[in-house]
Amino acid sequence: MKVPVKVDGRELTLTNLDKVLYPDYGFTKSEIIDYYSRVAPVLLPHLAGRPLTVKRYPNGVTGPFFFEKNAPEHTHSWVRRVTLPVPGSTKDRESIDFAVVDDLPTLVYYANLAALELHVPQWRVDEEGAALPPDTLVFDLDPGAPATIVECCRVALMLREVLKAEGLAARPKTSGNKGMQLYADWDCREEPSAYAKRLAQLLEKEHPDQVVSVMTKKARPGKVFIDWSQNNPAKTTVAPYSLRARERPTVSTPLMWKEVEGCEHPDELVFTAPDVLTRVDEHGDLFGRA
């Protein structure tokens, strides 16, 4: 079934609205489109100007998926695209035509494609499509079992203090999976990956029983891996307010620091799409600039 709609003056055709994309939760494509439409006022500022990578699940979260960076030829002409070099591409491409989600019609367009997850880099492009210097620093906190997001919260508090001493204000969010991320506005004082790596290594040295700064799996059980490498300009991180392709429609959810400070059980920091809409109604954008 195809449903023609007009979104902010743009004509779209929505398809398969009754298709269940989260079987265990009964969450349909229409509910996904509804979520992204309603969360757009707080989501779009975090997507605007950033080249988009999507993770698409055309048959739902239990089916095959694929990452899509290059905007296909059939993409609507009104979707903003920027051509950027991709050195070292695994598909031997010299450049990719990335989409940029600056408006609600583009967001709905991708939601209709079952692009459940939205991933963006820590830099933006200018009006002409040229890459700008990174404006965001990110630390991805990944717990090695049996550690959970509870242990991530403890490490996040340590990292918050280190960043504060450096003159940077950290903003926390869940990954929507098992971990969390800290962001800070970045002033390009040095190369961001090298800077983030140094801070991760500092915390590992000070708290060797809790923190690890290397990706090696055997080093991570019971500890929190501080992944500093997400600051590489070729990498992306799941956007604030993006859905995740889990059993439930969980969301990468901005947090209040008091929630991080008080977390005692992993379930306390699991939020679904309906939860997040309620939080936005109550608090607005908790991930606004510090």
TrEMBL record:
Give the Pfam families listed for this entry. LigD_Prim-Pol (PF21686)
- InterPro entries in UniProt: LigD_pol_dom, MtLigD_Pol-like, NHEJ_LigD
Q: Which residues form the DNA ligase D polymerase domain?
A: 28-287
Which PANTHER family would you find in this protein's record? BIFUNCTIONAL NON-HOMOLOGOUS END JOINING PROTEIN LIGD
Q: What is this protein called?
A: Bifunctional non-homologous end joining protein LigD
Q: Which organism is it from?
A: Nonomuraea solani
Q: What taxonomic lineage is listed for the species of origin?
A: Bacteria, Bacillati, Actinomycetota, Actinomycetes, Streptosporangiales
